From TrEMBL:
A Pfam short name: adh_short_C2
Annotated GO MF terms: oxidoreductase activity, acting on the CH-OH group of donors, NAD or NADP as acceptor
Designated name of the protein: 3-oxoacyl-[acyl-carrier protein] reductase
SUPFAM superfamilies assigned to the protein according to its UniProt record, in alphabetical order: NAD(P)-binding Rossmann-fold domains
Top-level taxon: Bacteria
Keyword Lipid metabolism: no
Length: 266
């Protein structure tokens, strides 16, 4: 039996990478999927892919830096499919990888808006529908980068720390409506991974070797099932949890210090 049969989901940033993998995994388990994506070309492509799989899909052009745009995506979901049962907050807009002292206020603002604020807005927008149905699943995305204090990601690490606090707060308060709120800390071969692999020979091999499982994750086959689990009845007694889906990378952690940065400068 399909684990998400007759459920309706909205996945932000579903036009590629992990978002696309989660959207396709949801469709395979019977869920209707709304692809909330700013890139029309990739969003429509994923919509076509899901329909070719025999699933139900709808692309809604969505700018997660806009509260109004997120609210329209939620309203469109309910109008088209009649409800919204599952929300996955995946989208964010990256900033240049530079040292903390070179990060600008504008970079931090962009990251906070596209990640933390976007998650806040989306969660509040879906809550009334979930509350009315007395059932809801919210899956947010965290990052191991925050735990390791990843270099060049000061703004990203800051925003993702906020995601954990928001996840736990909502889990505490919305459990009374039978809404669970959990987070996934994933690593997978998405657009950023392939860009780094192209720019840094041997990156893919080193990345795989750093994980106890000895390989890099696939967005659909490795991250998707974890999201399906948290979106289904199988996780009905789990809320406020952060699940590492990274091939065990969180166990040894990793050193992200750029090679050109001295260990000491004093």
């Amino acid at each position: 039996m399909a684990l998400l049969k007759e459920r309706v989901s909205l996945v932000t940033g579903a036009g590629g990478g992990i978002g696309r993998g989660v959207a396709r995994a949801f469709a395979r388990e019977g869920a209707a999927v709304v692809i909330a994506e700013i890139d029309e070309q990739t969003g429509l492509q994923v919509e076509r892919e899901i329909r070719e799989l025999g699933g139900r899909a709808l692309f809604v052009k969505t700018d997660v830096t806009s509260k109004a745009s997120i609210e329209v995506a939620v309203q469109s979901t309910v109008a088209h499919f009649g409800s919204i049962d599952i929300l996955v907050n995946n989208a964010f807009i990256p900033t240049p990888n530079v040292l903390f002292e070179h990060k600008t206020d504008e970079m931090l603002q962009q990251t906070l808006t596209s990640s933390l604020w976007a998650t806040w807005w989306a969660m509040r927008a879906v809550m009334p529908s979930m509350r009315e149905r007395r059932w809801g699943r919210i899956v947010n995305f965290y990052s191991i980068d925050t735990e390791t204090g990843a270099w060049l990601h000061a703004d990203y690490n800051t925003a993702k720390s906020g995601i954990v606090g928001l996840t736990r707060s909502a889990a505490s308060e919305w459990g009374r409506f039978n809404i669970t709120v959990n987070a996934i800390a994933p690593t997978a071969m998405g657009a950023t991974f392939f860009k780094l692999a192209e720019e840094n020979p041997g990156f893919a091999e080193r990345s795989a070797a750093a994980r106890p499982l000895g390989r890099c994750g696939d967005p659909e086959e490795d991250i998707g099932p974890a999201a399906v689990f948290l979106a289904s009845e199988m996780s009905r007694f789990i809320t406020g949890e952060t699940l590492h889906v990274d091939g065990g990378l969180h166990l040894p952690g990793y050193n992200s210090r750029p090679a050109n940065v001295p260990v000491r400068e004093y």
